[in-house]
Amino acid sequence: xxxxxxxxxxxxxxxxxxxxxxxxxxxxxxxxxxxxxxxxxxxxxxxxxxxxxxxxxxxxxxxxxxxxxxxxxxxxxxxxxxxxxxxxxxxxxxxxxxxxxxxxxxxxxxxxxxxxxxxxxxxxxxxxxxxxxxxxxxxxxxxxxxxxxxxxxxxxxxxxxxxxxxxxxxxxxxxxxxxxxxxxxxxxxxxxxxxxxxxxxxxxxxxxxxxxxxxxxxxxxxxxxxxxxxxxxxxxxxxxxxxxxxxxxxxxxxxxxxxxxxxxxxxxxxxxxxxxxxxxxxxxxxxxxxxxxxxxxxxxxxxxxxxxxxxx
Length: 312
What we know:
Elements: H1 9-14, H2 37-43, H3 46-56, E1 64-66, H4 69-73, H5 76-91, E2 95-97, H6 98-109, E3 113-118, H7 122-134, E4 138-144, H8 156-166, E5 173-176, H9 186-194, E6 198-200, H10 201-212, H11 230-266
Parallel strand pairs: 1-2, 3-4, 3-5, 5-6
C-alpha cells in the first residue's frame, strides 16, 4: 500500500522483486494536504489502512506492506506497532511498515549510529530523528530539502549531494528516508563512495516484505541484500571468484583479438626478389639516323623586307 501522491513507487519497488514474486499495489485515498506531520497522521489512520488492506484481499496477498515512512514514524514506535496490528486484523495476513522495516534492517546490520537524509521539512525530519532515538539509534548527521510537495521529482544527483552532506560523523550507515524518493540506482554509488551500508525507505520495505515470504530482494551492490549466512557467504565468495575468472578470460580474449588486428593491419611479409642478371655481350649497333635536310634561314626578327630595285 502506498500514499496517493507517491508517484516514484510503482517502478521503483518492482526493481527489488525477484521474477517469481508478484507485487500488487493500491493507494490510500487522496488528501489535499502538503507533506507535513498533519499529512503523516492523516495517511496513517487505522480506518484508512484497513480499507486499503481489504481492497487487496481479492488478490490473496501473503504479506502486506505499508510503504510510507513519515506515516509510520509519526506516532512513534508504539504507533507503528498499532498500525501493523490494525492491518493484520483487516487482512488476516502478516503486515509491516517502512519504519518498522528500517528498524529490522538496522538490527540486521548491527547499526547504532546513522546519518540521515530526507526531503522533508525540518519538523518532519526531527520527528524521524526522535523516533530513532527512542529505539536507541543516534543520528550523527542529517541533511534535508524542506520540501512539502513534488518529492518524486528530486533527481539522483540531489540525493547523492545530500548524502555527502549528512555523513559528517562516525556513522555506521546512511538512511535515505521517504518512499517517494527514488534511490535504487543511487545506493551502489553511495556505498562505494562512503564505504558504509546505505539504506533507503523503498529498499528496506521490500527487503523486509520479501523476508516474510522466505525470499530475498534483488539489487546489485547493496550491502543490506547480502546473504550473511555461512552458506550465503560461501556462495558469494564463489560468485566473486567466478566474476574475476570471467573478467580474466575477457581481458585475454581482448588482448588476443587486438594482436590479431595488429597482424592483419601489417599484412604478410613478401620477400623482395631481385631482377634476373642478364650476361654481358657485344653491344648492338645503333641505328643510323638520316641527315636532316637544310632549311632556309628565317628572316631576323624586327627587320623589314628589302625594298625592290628600281626598273632600269
